[in-house]
Design goal:
The protein has 418 residues and is of the alpha/beta class. It has helices at residues 13-22, 34-41, 53-64, 78-88, 102-105, 109-133, 180-199, 236-245, 265-277, 297-310, 338-342, 350-361, 365-370, 398-403, and strands at 2-6, 26-30, 70-71, 92-95, 138-144, 159-164, 167-172, 202-208, 210-212, 259-264, 285-290, 293-296. It binds nicotinamide-adenine-dinucleotide.
Length: 418
């Protein structure tokens, strides 16, 4: 199968390209290298060193025996995106190319506006480009479990049966997102569903839980995927593991009773591959909930602590005030049957994944230690921000210079919110 990955330079995109190629699929991709710039803007770095994009592509070619056609484009550049799709003629398009950070979207108007326009306009551009250049291709769009929020009901996979005033219908399950970022994903879901209805597009909208884990293939460090720990781009488990390797306490937010769906990076790759290899039908808008475990943030902190202790690290937990506006005591019972019906078999248990990740991080502890001031939350959902991060409008801050080695941006400089 010919798979075009939009967002191929990201945390999930780069391992997915390698995983699909290893299964015999032909892969191409696009990325505007924005994630590298956003993490730089926040004054941080990937804990695991990553190669500049063209070194990555060279390693891919050497190790997989074939080239990976790469377009350094922004999805919102509609003509360029159309040319890339027309040239590659994909059977499937995986759309990962969005800003994935809730805290980043909550900084101020400029960041909220950027995240929503980047995500919603980029998706719209892709939908129209697919209609014109590859209308028969299957779109696999990454949404998030955060679209649903935390309703006091079980969460079905996208749709549920409703009875109202004596009439019944099958309707999209209500979305109650909790950040400007999560709302951008809700708007995307509506637009993707509409394109399926209107144009007969085949799409799978993946409501994904939080992904954790490292990707450091022993064959070549240029194949490593990034792993962030700053408050905006480090997801909870990855951040907790980074805290343990520098001897800092693990810091769940608030009471720690918030529950979320999670899965490891290895399970994420397995699930996305299953969805690609079992495509939606033309005109079908299929929604899958992609998660493996439901765990509270406090329990996750304990699991990370135990994994670190098993490796001889004296880890401890110290909760901090919750900067977010979120329910801490709530019902949470999402369905996730469709992927299991497609054949999803969870890989290693979470404890083994955590030990692997901490082991991968230990050699890079100095990188985390040098940016440890990026760990604590400074972005508050309700209060106006008094941010201690470098002003993104100022060129050449200390941290940007320090992280320049990580940011191969094709010579075009960091991309910042307009
Ligand atoms: N990582 C998780 O835990 C998680 C959980 C749920 C959903 N998701 C979703 O999965 C997708 C991938 O997540 P990730 O963690 O790999 O994020 P990521 O930021 O590492 O990857 C996204 C990639 O897309 C690129 N990109 C963003 N906007 C672009 C644009 N307009 N044009 C071209 N390239 C652009 C970025 O440069 C980056 O390399 C996102 O849509 C995210 O919302 C991720």
């Amino acid at each position: 199968m010919r798979v075009f990955i939009a967002g191929i330079d990201g945390y999930l995109g780069w391992p997915l390209a390698q995983h699909l190629a290893a299964r015999g699929h032909t892969v191409a991709g696009a990325d505007a290298l924005l994630r590298r710039a956003w993490v730089g803007e926040r004054g941080s770095v990937s804990a695991v060193p990553i190669a500049p994009v063209y070194e990555r592509l060279a390693a891919f070619r050497e190790l997989s025996g074939g080239p990976l056609p790469f377009s350094p484009l922004d999805l919102r550049d509609h003509p360029a995106l159309g040319r890339a799709l027309a040239a590659f003629a994909p059977d499937a398009v995986v759309h990962l190319a969005e800003c994935p950070s809730a805290p980043y979207s909550m900084i101020d108007f400029r960041h909220a506006d950027f995240v929503q326009s980047n995500n919603v306009s980029g998706t719209l551009s892709l939908l129209f480009a697919m209609r014109e250049h590859c209308p028969g291709a299957h779109l696999v769009k990454l949404g998030t479990m955060g679209e649903y929020g935390t309703p006091d009901l079980d969460i079905p996979e996208g749709f549920f049966d409703v009875e109202f005033r004596g009439r019944r219908d099958r309707l999209p399950f209500p979305r109650q997102a909790g950040s400007w970022y999560h709302w951008s994903k809700v708007f995307d879901s509506q637009n993707v569903g509409f394109a399926c209805r209107l144009w007969g597009l085949a799409a799978t909208d993946v409501m994904q839980g939080v992904v954790y884990g490292s990707w450091c293939p022993p064959a070549d460090p240029r194949l490593n995927s990034r792993l962030d720990f700053d408050e905006a781009f480090g997801t909870a488990v990855n951040r907790f593991c980074c805290q343990t390797v520098i001897g800092r306490p693990i810091t769940p937010y608030g009471g720690g009773t918030q529950s979320r769906g999670l899965l490891s990076l290895a399970d994420c790759l397995q699930c996305l591959t299953l969805v690609l290899e079992h495509p939606a039908a033309p005109g079908e808008y299929r929604v899958v909930n992609q998660l493996r475990d439901v765990l509270s943030v406090g329990r996750l902190a304990e699991l990370v602590r135990d994994a670190a202790r098993a490796l001889g690290i004296d880890a401890r937990i110290a909760a901090v005030d919750n900067p977010r506006d979120e329910a801490e005591a709530h019902h949470y019972n999402p369905d996730s049957e469709k992927l299991r019906e497609l054949g999803f078999k969870p890989s290693a248990p979470i404890g083994a994944e955590l030990r692997q990740m901490i082991g991968d991080l230990l050699p890079h502890a100095d990188r985390v230690r040098a940016h440890a001031d990026r760990l604590p939350p400074t972005v508050h959902w309700r209060r106006p921000q008094i941010s201690s991060v470098p002003n993104p409008a100022e060129e050449g801050t200390r941290n940007e210079r320090e992280t320049a080695a990580d940011h191969d941006d094709g010579g075009r400089g960091p991309h910042r919110p307009a």
